[in-house]
């Protein structure tokens, strides 16, 4: 079916961009599994609430990539093999240094019953058009064999270039936190009951306690080196005289590895993607990574080493998409706890009552080559003042200004490539 083929293409493109389920104690697994995900963010999205309109300061921070607003977010997920008597109830009691209140309620989401099926209405098939260019590796120029070209029309017909299936496997992660589907009983924060912001100076250092009617008491303490990671601040975001792009950053406190990607739209319905990975990989940004995954990816040179503070984007990628969106992440690994504490050599059949994991990352994002100077002026400066002479290229009073030609954005390219109408 036409729409089915389009949906398949969307899925394929999105894909290019051992579970942690708690088991019953008699099967050797922990009764409860608790994950804390701690993120520090600057640039895109820092300090914004879902659905909120960004302030001018936030917009400038987004455009500049790093600096400005620093946001800390915390996600709490508790899974258990127990089923409580009555309604599930659990709370996280954080240290006062977190600054988010004395108690964070872990609410069990309500399952939404499936709604009535919408009858399928066939759409007229339009053959997809456009292509995707994939670059990888830091350096002044693209390596031989780049870019890898994915043709949307050929993808819709099931014709994939050699090695495409492996593009997304480089960053495949085994991270599977507790969830409503994986555990008998589950609770999370933030939730519909409370979404308290963690202040910019909030700290995880201190004792954490989790209590509930479907979990044993979980208690552990985080040290100074297990706090939120430091902010990710770009120091360089510009085009080199050679035509390549240059990214530079301050070392991020707690970083064990770095990763950078750029995505943008080019001419003629083209999607452009680049990643800092030295091995051929899709421009994907892993969410969180374990210590083992970080070590493996650094050894493979899929992630940049923690001593890295700069990376050049190849000239060919910049030429194809001069104003792409850059995203960067510093990965800080994780801290693990259990009760009883895990021995150096666990005996056969050893199983803790509970396990807890704290994982870390720090991110930033912005538009390549955009800095504060590029934002000078604005609508007010664009209006001619009474008696002032028009600047070169500026229309005089009474003359209708001609709109500047608009480059296609990434959304335009993807919609065009899929044969969908513009928004």
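Sequence proposed for the structure above (423 residues):
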């Amino acid at each position: 079916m036409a729409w089915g083929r389009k949906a398949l293409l969307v899925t394929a493109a999105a894909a290019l961009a051992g579970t942690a389920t708690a088991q019953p104690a008699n099967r050797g697994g922990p009764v409860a599994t608790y994950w804390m995900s701690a993120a520090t963010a600057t640039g895109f999205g820092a300090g914004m609430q879902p659905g909120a309109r960004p302030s001018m300061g936030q917009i400038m921070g987004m455009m500049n990539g790093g600096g400005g607003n620093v946001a800390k977010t915390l996600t709490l997920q508790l899974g258990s093999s127990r089923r409580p008597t009555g309604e599930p109830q659990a709370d996280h009691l954080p240290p006062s240094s977190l600054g988010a209140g004395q108690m964070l309620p872990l609410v069990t989401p309500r399952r939404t019953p499936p709604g009535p099926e919408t009858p399928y209405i066939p759409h007229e098939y339009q053959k997809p058009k456009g292509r995707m260019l994939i670059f990888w590796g830091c350096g002044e120029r693209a390596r031989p064999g780049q870019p890898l070209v994915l043709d949307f029309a050929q993808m819709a017909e099931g014709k994939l270039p050699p090695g495409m299936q492996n593009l997304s496997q480089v960053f495949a992660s085994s991270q599977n936190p507790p969830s409503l589907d994986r555990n008998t009983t589950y609770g999370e924060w933030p939730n519909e009951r409370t979404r308290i912001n963690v202040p910019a100076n909030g700290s995880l250092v201190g004792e954490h306690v989790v209590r509930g009617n479907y979990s044993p008491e979980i208690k552990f303490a985080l040290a100074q080196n297990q706090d939120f990671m430091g902010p990710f601040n770009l120091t360089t975001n510009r085009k080199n005289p050679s035509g390549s792009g240059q990214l530079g950053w301050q070392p991020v406190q707690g970083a064990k590895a770095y990763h950078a990607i750029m995505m943008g739209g080019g001419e003629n319905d083209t999607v452009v993607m680049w990643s800092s990975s030295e091995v051929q990989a899709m421009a994907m940004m892993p969410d969180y990574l374990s210590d083992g995954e970080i070590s493996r990816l650094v050894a493979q040179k899929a992630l940049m080493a923690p001593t890295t503070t700069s990376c050049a984007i190849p000239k060919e990628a910049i030429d194809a998409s001069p104003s792409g969106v850059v995203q960067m992440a510093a990965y800080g690994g994780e801290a693990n706890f259990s009760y009883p504490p895990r021995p150096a050599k666990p005996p056969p059949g050893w199983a803790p009552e509970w396990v807890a994991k704290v994982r870390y990352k720090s991110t930033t994002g912005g538009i390549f080559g955009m800095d504060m100077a590029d934002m000078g002026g604005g609508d007010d400066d664009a209006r001619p003042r009474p008696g002032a002479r028009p600047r070169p290229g500026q229309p005089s009073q009474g003359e209708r200004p001609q709109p500047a030609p608009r480059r296609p954005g990434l959304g335009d390219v993807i919609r065009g490539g899929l044969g969908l109408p513009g928004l």
